[in-house]
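W.,

You were right to be curious about this one. When I first looked at the sequence I had no strong expectations either way, so I just let the prediction run and decided to look at it fresh. Below is the sequence, 260 residues in total, followed by the output.
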Amino acid sequence: MKFCANLSFMFTEVSSIIERYALAKEAGFKAVETGFPFGYTLEQVKLAKENSGLEQILINLRTGDVSKGELGVTAIPGKEHEFKDSLKVTIEFAKTLKAKKIHIMAGKVDSPTPENWQTYENNLKYAAEQLQQENIVGVIEPINQHSVPKYFMSDYGKAIEIIKRINNPHLKLMLDVFHLQQISGDLSHNITDLIKYVGHVQVAQVPNRNEPDTFGEINYTYILKHLESSGYHDWIGLEYKPASNTNDGLKWIKSYGYSL
C-alpha cells in the first residue's frame, strides 16, 4: 500500500498549505495530494513542492471560495465558461506540479434537474478530452449528504453511468471509503464492483473522519487488504482529520503492518 498525505486535512498545526509540504516530508511521506491552493501563486506552490522532494499525486479543481461553500460549478448551467477557465488553470498547476490526477468537483445544487445532469455530463466530457491531451486523469467523487448537504454528486450508480457513457480512460471514479460507507455501505461487494472504474482511493473513519484506526464503523485492517486483493495498487490518499496531533496519529500505519 502507498499512502499520500492530504495537505488540506493533515498538518493543520500550521495554517499555510505550502508549509505543510515540508511537514509531510519530515513525517516520512513520499507523496501528497491537495485541494486547490487558494491564495498562493503557482511559483510558490511549485517551490514548496520541489523543496520538499515529494511527489504530487492529485490536486482538486479550482472551485471558487470554499469558505463560502463553493465546491465547483461542473453541474451548474450557465457557468460552462467558468468551469472551462477553472479547468485550464488547474491543468497548468497539475502540469507544473507533475500531478497526474485532478479531482473534478461537481458543486452544490438545491434541487437537481435534468439540465443539471446534462451540464455535468457535458462538462465532464469536455474535461476528459482536455485531460487526455495532457495525460492526466480526471476523477469524480460521490460525496455523502451528511458531510456536504446539497452536493450534486452523491450517487455511485449515476457516477458510473456517466463514466461509462463518456467512455474515456481519462475520466474515472474517486473512491473515498468514508463516503462509500455513508452512501451505500456493503463495502466488500461495492469495492469489488467499483474497482475497475477507480482512478484514486481515499480513506477516513466513519463517522468522525479521523484516522482509520479510531473508533468507528469501518474495519480498515480488512478494507485495505480487500482493496489490494481487488486489484488496487495505486496511491491511497489520507483525507482524514487527525484526532489530535497529525504525527502522533500516524502510528496506525505501522500498527497495520505498513510503512510510508
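Here's what jumped out at me. The radius of gyration is 17 Å. And, maybe more interesting for your project: The beta strands are 2-6, 31-34, 55-60, 101-103, 137-140, 171-176, 198-203, 235-238.

Coffee later to discuss?

I.
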